[in-house]
Amino acid sequence: MEELLTILGDLHPEVDFTTAKDLVTGGILDSFDIVSLISEINEEFDVTIGAAELTPENFASAETIYALIKAKLDDED
Amino acid sequence: MQNNVLDYLNESLDRVPDKIAYADDDVQLSFSDVKNIMDSVGTHLLNMGCNHEPVIVFMKKSPNTIATFFGVINAGCYYVPIDSEMPATRINLILENCKPRVIICDESTLEIAKGFDYQAEVLLFNDIVNTKPDEAALAQVRKKAIDTDPIYIVFTSGSTGVPKGVCACHRSVIDYIEQLSETLGFNEDTIFGNQTPLYFDACLKELYPTLKFGATTYLIPHSYFMFPVKLVEYINEHNINTVCWVVSALTMISAFATFDTVKPTTLRTIAFGSEVFPIKQFRLWREACPEAKFFNLYGPTEGTGMCCYYPVERDFADDEVIPVGFPFKNTQILLLKDDNTLAEPGEQGEICIRGTSVTLGYYNNPEKTREAYVQNPLNTAYPEIIYRTGDMGHINEYGELIFHSRKDFQIKHMGHRIELGEIEANVNLVPEIKLSGCIYAKEQGKIVLYYVGDITEGDLIKALKTKLPRYMLPNKVNRLEEMPFTANGKIDRVRLTKMFESR
Questions:
Q1: Taking every annotated instance into account, which residue ranges of this chain make up the domain Carrier (chain A) (predicted)?
Q2: What's the total number of domains in chain A?
Q3: Which site among B222, B226, B275, B449 would you substitute to test the A interface, given the most A Cβ atoms closer than 10 Å to its Cβ?
Q4: Which candidate, A53, B169, B427, B466, has a CA 20 to 30 Å from the CA of B43?
């Protein structure tokens, strides 16, 4: 989770990602952020997020993004 | 001869009055709805005494906004679109530049407009949309129409921190719509999926051909562009066959392997521009849409939308660049060298535009206008204005125009044209900032800001959000103890670029 918060904090240093739950509906993340985010997650965690997993629900908060990463990591085991 | 863009509506209104012209998830307007709104809005403005003047349209993206643009033109005035995504400082600069008497709002922007420093009469769309049309008065305005009168002002980034208002007239827009429609093959069956905001010239491609042909434009909600599967499903559900998007909106879809899940089945014309399309991504698109025709479009706002096109037909190697191609009919491209003579084939020169597509100039800004809208140096016989784009290019062995680079610090980022100088100028307005230098990391597509000053990165971004539109906010912000300088005492951007690369 720490690593993910660092990535998010790098994108938007002005946002508190531990509490924000409306990253998509609140307009915090835009399409450019999503693109950077996916590539950084890929580098940091070595997981590839596919188009089908790119949903507003999965990107609502740091927690949901982390859950997605964890699910993908568990899948690989 | 047609001398007013609104004449495009006449035939469509006769032929298909009840067909949907513009639609989003909330509002659908038929051609007769569009006619009613534009006559009501036009009449209301005439009743207020508006005449050949800028009218601000400050509404969220919606079919109603488009019809309001036409209403402003219908009154013989010109529309200036602004958007709630623009920060207050920027909006204020635009208002100071245009000095409008009237601002048309919707419910979502009314309160913001009332808080502007600049005082104008604020009208609510819902209050004026049912004004009883005064057909005689509107006909009188149309009868006196002159095709060199402005129809819009759109604002583009200015290197000194002040945005520049590009002002275009009926004749330039009609010329553009005719050439673009012929080249891309628009017709009455065209169904557009609009991606670009209404406050730039990019949306001309959908707005006016829809009027001309009785076609249909869907305004695709912004949020779909973050979720590619939903976006492609939207295209298929609405039978969208034509898109004119910025490259980053297309690569967003292909880069996430969306085509493994869902393919766009209805697209037949795919036009893109504003940025270089990476060949690898382009191939994915061509495989996914084998029946579609692809066009690269190129042109600055000052040349009314786009002025060059390239139908992508031959194969390209991974490291090749898709050409800018050929000028539209009725437009000439001059490649001028530093000594104002023409570049030979293969030789580099500045891309300059000649023809009706050259816009009127920057509104209320004679100084900046004089720098870029200049007398054609090849013609000493009579006054003839060409536009110097600041883009460098050459003609390749196939006779195609190839874009190279900029002469200055203007960049293209996510399809937006940005002056790095405008970002720096706004950073330097933050009281704690001592020095700042901005670079563009092309490879990663990131705006990177370095600064010296007693403020954290987070607080600086917060401060910038009140001054710069979102697409101009730096993607990486780094605080430095000392700024590197060149021998001439300028901020050393080459060093900053190296610092970013070796971070």
A1: 1-73
A2: 1
A3: B226
A4: B169
pLDDT, tens only, B11-48: 999 999 999 999 999 999 999 999 999 999 999 999 99
* pLDDT digits 0-9 by tens, A46-72: 988 888 888 889 999 999 999 999 998
**Whether A14 and B461 lie within 8 Å, measured CB to CB:** yes
Q: Give the SS3 label for residue B74.
A: helix
DSSP 8-class letter at B328: P
Distance from CA of A51 to the nearest CA of B (A): 5
Q: Chain B: give the shortest CA distance to residue A16, in Å.
A: 10
Same domain, yes or no, for B373 and B280? yes
- What pLDDT is recorded for position A31? 78
Distance of CA B192 to the CA centre of its chain: 17
Tokens 């964890």 — which residue? A70
Residues 6+ apart with CB under 8 A from B44: B71, B123, B128, B131
Residues of A with CB under 8 A from a CB of B: 10-14, 24, 29-32, 34-36, 38, 49-52, 54-56, 59
In a domain, B294, yes or no: yes
Cα separation values, B444 from A12, A37, B413, B476, Å: 17, 12, 11, 11
Mutate to test the interface with A, among B256, B411, B503 (most CBs of A within 10 A): B256
Query: Within this chain, do residues B243 and B367 fall inside the same structural domain, yes or no?
Result: yes
